[in-house]
Amino acid sequence: MSAERVVILGAGLAGSLLAIYLARRGFSVDVYEGRPDLRTTEIPAGRSINLALANRGIRALTEVGLYKSVRELLITMRGRMLHEAGRAEAFQPYGKNDDEVIYSVSRGGLNELLLNTAQHQYGVRFHFDQRVMAANMRSGEVRLRDSDGRQYVIDQQPLIAADGAGSIVRRQMSKLPGYHAREDYLPHAYKELSIAPTADGGHAIDANSLHIWPRGDYMLIALPNLDGSFTVTLFLARHGHPGFDTLSTPAELNQFFKAQFPDVLELIPDLEDQFFANPVGVMGTVYCAPWRVGGKFLLVGDAAHSIVPFHGQGMNCAFEDCYELDRCIESNQYAGPRGWERVFARFEANRKANTDAIAAMALENYVEMRDSVRDPRFHLKKKLAWELERRFPDTFVPRYSLVMFHHVPYAEAQRRGIIQQEILEQLLGPSSNLEDVDYDQAEKLIKQRLAPAAETTLS
Ligand SMILES: Cc1cc2nc3c(=O)[nH]c(=O)nc-3n(C[C@H](O)[C@H](O)[C@H](O)COP(=O)(O)OP(=O)(O)OC[C@H]3O[C@@H](n4cnc5c(N)ncnc54)[C@H](O)[C@@H]3O)c2cc1C
Fold first, then answer.
1. Using a 6 Å cutoff on CB, does residue 117 contact ligand 1?
2. What would the pLDDT profile of 379-400 be if each residue is shown by its tens digit?
3. Ligand 1 center to residue 151 CA distance, Å?
4. Taking Cα atoms as reference points, which of 22, 116, 47, 23 lies closest to residue 278?
């Protein structure tokens, strides 16, 4: 009997990893991608040249035996290096110990590894330069356009749409009765710049940190690359003072960087050229439901739940989708007329509350990165949180750690995070000194409010 065929739309991070998962289960997989093959074509990165990879993404890559190869692409980031105006740089570790770290990885390098593995190891068929133009939700037909502009229709289900934040499939799905989709754009946008390697090929600033220049309403960040360079991202209002629309001349740009980021200006001598050549990217959150039409169509990754990048979780969450969908396939009968419908329904039921939670936490983290990190009380609470984690390791785990270093469902991390914040506030009161904390009271509060859930959810 020939293998059942599954079609994936989009060969980005989610689409290419999902292709591997499905091919491992014996499906015959075709992937249609709108852009040319990134392995043979110079494609402008478009968005985020490098990304932060954390535990959820690592688990999904490990499951398909890829993490060993991925490791070669990674640079460890142990914490945030804060560059506050007029102060010495200050390092804030991400976790309570040395293995609680995240990694910088090249988007292109990772995507290439996934494509090669899917194609050469698992026989996945990729069709590049084939753009989805429309999808008929009722018939299941999808209309594509090839690189010569010719249009054709494929009629093959199930069809999994991993076509990213601007998903055509989602936009068409949302027109069905009972469906909705919302794209909430931030008033802030971003622009990528680059710090070149030093003359001897090294990193110009600490290679093992995620650098942040927090300035209240805006910020710069920099993530290291293996070749010694850094990818720098300016997050700034689209309109206003300062805003991308008012940095329209070299004089305005230089004045802004001289006043706010003088050290970065020194590190990017060709700032003007880069700034005016590179595009401004928008950021937003996608909320939509349902994510599926019977057993015909399913949305995954950014197509279903694009989030703002401030928790470094969009790709991690998309990879977790692949992991979870695979588990739904494993534990459900996908065979038979209603099989895929059951799998898709289970997947959405498992994921939706969790992706809503990470969307909210990612928005909150923007304020933390550009502003709260400058507040001494924020650091005091962080220190107390680690102390509580040291004393009650199975129960009190800071929310950031739950998201980045554990696999607790996002919604559970969010729920525990709210309780933990209340406990921290209660224990500190108006004090600014950790020595005032009553740890007997801490134990009581933690037992009362957190203990019962811990063992079942921490992994
Ligand atoms: C500035 C920025 C920084 C980020 N930093 C991080 C980070 O540090 N850590 C992290 O985990 N996440 C980060 N993210 C989020 C991450 O990039 C996304 O969550 C991730 O790329 C989602 O993968 P995806 O496969 O769902 O979508 P994508 O990677 O966008 O892939 C979608 C694919 O579909 C293709 N496609 C689109 N439309 C069509 C069509 N009509 N027909 C055919 N093909 C189509 C596209 O060409 C693309 O290849 C960041 C995002 C941004 C914008």
1. no
2. 899 899 999 999 998 899 999 9
3. 25
4. 47
